[in-house]
Design brief:
- This protein is an alpha+beta fold.
- It contains 11 helices and 9 strands.
- A 5-stranded antiparallel sheet has the order 1-8-3-6-9, covered by helices on one side. It has a 4-stranded antiparallel sheet with strand order 2-7-4-5, with no helix packed on it.
- Strand 4 and strand 5 form a beta hairpin.
- Helix 1 packs antiparallel against helix 4 and helix 5 crosses helix 6.
- The longest helix is centred in the last third of the chain and has 17 residues.
Length: 282
């Protein structure tokens, strides 16, 4: 039987469940004034930082990334990085930081650079922040370890994935909290079609009400936006030389290659085979 494509997130979750001590730190520090950190690197740590209400920049392996609005960053093992951050307004900002010990060689999240290294102007920043805050509160001594892992998994599912060949990229910036939550839910379930009723149930609205608010916030229907996110993930999977179209179809929740190919051509404008050739694969 053909082996299923290994999901980097599921692999990471399995290792965290087997060894919860891999979660080394989850904390938040206020950015009431300028904060600087000199150049440094971690041998076996995967670090997630979320800057809210801040300006400044990260520097990773000599390349600078500007902080625009609420910004997420991931620092992989051995990446030399530093930061210079200060609050955007008088009220100050916050920076969340999570550190997870990983296997440098065989960890799919690391070898595939699964998470986006830099993602500014996050549409889901407040949803992510609430999840991280819940995780931070559970990090004290004597707290329930399984709940820490549940909260960590929630955070990692919301964290922006890396889509190096995503068509029509560009951040969605919305102010509607319910729409942000629906977006985050879709992002965490890109391996299948999420129905409008399911999104609505997740955010506590009627489907009609959510549909109206989604279009007002994004200019697009919820289904069109969700299919666009799935198409970007499918194209990222198709770019991997060791992955067959049949595997991608199965990972995306389709029961046949033919059904997947019709859907992908409708969304991306090209066939899965053409997507692989355009990326230098055959």
């Amino acid at each position: 039987m053909e082996a299923r494509l290994v999901d980097p997130l599921l692999t990471l979750f399995a290792k965290l469940i087997a060894d919860p001590a891999r979660l080394l730190k989850a904390h938040v520090f206020p950015a009431g004034s300028s904060h600087q950190m000199g150049l440094h690197a971690h041998d076996d740590l995967l670090q997630f930082d979320l800057a809210l209400g801040c300006v400044g920049r990260w520097e990773v392996d000599g390349r600078a990334y500007e902080i625009h609005g609420d910004t997420a960053a991931v620092f992989y093992p051995h990446q030399v990085h530093r930061y210079d951050i200060w609050p955007r307004a008088r009220g100050g900002g916050r920076v969340f930081s999570i550190k997870i010990r990983v296997d440098r060689v065989d960890e799919p999240c690391v070898t595939r650079r699964w998470f986006a290294e830099h993602r500014p102007r996050l549409a889901t920043s407040q949803t992510m922040a609430r999840s991280v805050e819940r995780l931070v509160r559970l990090m004290g001594p004597g707290t329930h370890v399984p709940m820490r892992l549940v909260r960590l998994q929630e955070v990692l599912c919301l964290w922006p994935a890396r889509n190096p060949v995503a068509p029509n990229p560009g951040p969605w910036s919305v102010e509607d909290e319910s729409v942000e939550q629906a977006m985050g839910y879709v992002q965490a379930h890109l391996n299948r079609r999420v129905e409008l009723q399911e999104m609505a149930d997740h955010v506590g609205l009627s489907p009609r009400h959510l549909s109206r608010r989604f279009r007002a916030a994004t200019g697009s229907s919820a289904y069109v936006w969700a299919d666009g996110q799935r198409a970007r993930l499918a194209q990222e999977l198709l770019s991997r030389p060791d992955v067959r179209v049949k595997q991608v179809a199965r990972e995306m929740g389709f029961d046949s290659v033919q059904t997947f190919s019709r859907w992908f051509r409708r969304e991306a404008g090209i066939t899965p085979t053409q997507a692989r050739i355009s990326d230098g694969r055959s």
